[in-house]
Amino acid sequence: MKAEIIAVGTELLLGQVVNTNATFLSEQLADLGMEVYYQTVVGDNRNRLEELLNLADKRSDLIVLCGGLGPTEDDLTKEVVARHVGKSLVQDPKGYQILLHFFENSQRVMTENNLQQALTIQDSITLQNPNGLAVGSLYQGEKSTYLLLPGPPSELKPMFRQNAVPELQKVFPTEEKLYSTVLRFYGIGESQLVTDLADLIDGQTNPTIAPYAKENEVTLRITVKTGDENEAEKLLKELEQKILQRVGEFFYGYGDDNSLAKVVVDLLRAHGKTVTAAESLTAGMFQSTLGSISGVSEVFPGGLVTYSPKLKIALLGVKEETIEKYGVVSEECAKEMAVNSLALGQTDFALSFTGVAGPDELEGQAAGTVWIGLAKRDGQVEARCYHFNRNRQYVQQSAVMKGLDLIRRAILTEK
Q1: Domain final position from 121, 148, 171
Q2: Is beta strand 177-185 parallel, antiparallel or unpaired with respect to 217-226?
Q3: Gap between the Cα atoms of 407 and 143, Å rounded
Q4: pLDDT class of 161 with cuts at 50, 70, 90
Q5: How does 290-320 read in b/e, with b if 16+ C-beta sit within 10 Å?
Q6: Start and end of every MoaB/Mog domain (predicted)?
Q7: Which end of the chain has fewer beta carbons closer than 10 Å to its terminal beta carbon, N or C?
Q8: Are 135 and 149 in contact (CB under 8 A)?
Q9: pLDDT tens digit sequence for 292-329
Q10: How many Å apart are CA 303 and CA 315, to the nearest integer?
């Protein structure tokens, strides 16, 4: 089953908006047993969209269009597709009532152009929008089937999952499906991971292994194609075990939407532990990363950002002689920052970050030199030096990821 994704919007071509919908839709369609052969971005232009639809008709069974369903003049997807298949646009009664209800509740005047959000292609299946006002459509044509979805990911994703998937399964029934598991790794590069798993990757048939390099981590998607869910689970688990026997030291979690920060927060909550931090070069990035995770207040009471030596001394209690003798980019300073922040926060763990984010040197230390201290409630304290390359932001992000991994490992190894 061949599928094609067409993202509509001049803002995508100009780079003002990143096309994350294509990634999401490709993965979701693959899970339904549909292979995406083409992805295209086209601007808000009727003639160019019509040309693209003519081409897509010749090569794809399913054509997914995202964007251009809103109320403005440049929202022309429904109009062009309707004309392309020789159908009219008709008002969807339910979508119309939702539209009226929205404007009544918000005590706003509804302009006439908003009505086009409730229009759908004649003889199509209307897809309601759980998070917005523009309805979607699924139309079965003579040559191809057309799926029209809104552009904002917050609207597209729930509409696809809740409303489009059941209809697509009816239109394109299949005995075999794709079942996938995503394994996430930190502390090992893609090239080393692929080398360690070379024979498994070279000999793959079903399941398959696909590595993806991300910022400061690597993921593996293992996928099996079968009509039996129990068999899929068995095959995926067997391959996962083989993989983890070799690189399990670097494995930290599952899933596309997971993160090392979420895993750390979940571990802290599960073990009844707390953490604080004292940050210099990362300027609060570690605490901000933790703060983005729901439920973090249970395990993170707060921390300090002490960029200057003056505040390290005044707020954190780092000894002035420590900084004079060893400097702020040092093992000694990192340890004192961690120990003193642990005492201030009364937590089980404390991390400290000090170093040179760059681009210039500091205290004779090269950009990318980072000391991370780890103090524990039982009195143990250590500090390790790391050397991260690339730009300032990458150095800061790398330090945060390393700190998260240190906490993760400390929790798992604590007796």
Answers
A1: 171
A2: antiparallel
A3: 56
A4: very high
A5: beebeebeebbeebbbbeebeebbeebebee
A6: 4-170
A7: C
A8: no
A9: 999 999 999 999 999 999 999 999 999 999 999 999 99
A10: 11
Provide the CATH number for the domain around residue 156. 3.40.980.10
Total count of residues recorded for the chain: 415
The two structure tokens encoding residue 69: 């369903």
Q: What tokens were used for 236?
A: 């995926």
**Tokens in use for 177?**
């499906």
DSSP assignment letter at 329: S
Strand, coil or helix: what is 39? strand
pLDDT-derived band at 415, boundaries 50, 70, 90: low
Compute the distance between CA of residue 371 and CA of residue 351 in angstroms, rounded to an integer.
10
pLDDT at 32: 84
Mean pLDDT for the stretch of residues 333-347: 98
Same domain, 387 and 316: yes
Asked if 246 and 279 sit in the same domain, the reply is no
| DSSP letters spanning 142-187 | SS-EEEEE-SSHHHHHHHIIIIIHHHHHHHS--S-EEEEEEEEE-S
What is the number of domains present in the chain? 3
Q: What tokens were used for 64?
A: 């997914």
The answer on 249 and 397 residing in a single domain is no
User: Mean of the per-residue pLDDT values for the chain?
Assistant: 94
Question: How confident is the model over 73-107, as pLDDT tens digits?
Answer: 889 999 999 999 999 999 999 999 999 999 888 88
Residue 245 sits in the same domain as residue 100: no
Give the residue from 371, 404, 408 showing the smallest Cα distance to 290: 404
